[in-house]
What we know:
Elements: H1 2-33, E1 37-42, E2 44-47, E3 50-53, E4 58-70, E5 73-78, H2 94-111, E6 116-119, E7 125-131, E8 134-142, E9 150-151, E10 155-159, E11 161-163, E12 166-168, E13 170-173, E14 178-179, H3 206-231
Parallel strand pairs: 1-13
Antiparallel strand pairs: 1-7, 2-3, 4-5, 4-6, 4-8, 8-10, 9-14, 11-12
Amino acid sequence: MKPKRYRYRVGFASVFLLILCVSTMFCLPTAAAALQGSLELRCSIEHENHTVLLAGDEYALCMVATLEESQGELQYQTLPAYSFADCDWTQCSASQLREKALQLAPNAQKRKDFAATQQTDANGTVIFRDLTPGLYLVIRTKPASENTAYTSDPFLVSIPTVVNGTSAYQVVAEPKFSWDSKPSKPAVPSLKPDSSLPQTGQLNWPIPVLIAMGLSLILLGGWLQRKSDHEK
Length: 232
């Protein structure tokens, strides 16, 4: 009896291990697909020998391509709404990605299909959490009134980002800012001439006076001539 019971126990254990292995195999892809990422933006600029923390600015994220990770390689699929800018995203240089971001931004702002929108805190920092893997366009949608002199272009960021051959799902980015030193144009006052005063370049008003003086001189000359003739 003991050998028989032993065989039953061994068979049960084998079946249990087999079920466990199969369940693990099916759960692994699901767990990988459920991975979420985050993006932290640190927004500041060095100006006049001190660091300006750009607090109160609003940023929006717009997904332009989905992403799948296979054997350590990232594969992007551009969304239909942004297919006009489709390319092999993995082969784009930094300058090409900047150009793509500028190309995509007007359409994204028009559609307003943002995945998330948040404001920077007092330290100029904002964190977007629970992001589905993909390629995101980052847009500064509404700067705070005190930060309007500091400008920044939209940019693209991948969640995850490959760093030293490893996929990093917690990404930190520091947007580049510039200070717009162009002074505002001074208001040009609108000058409307007063019709009651003589205008520069307008010589109509002396004409009647000159005519009257001319007639007076003619009459005076005629009178003097007649007087001279009478005295003779």
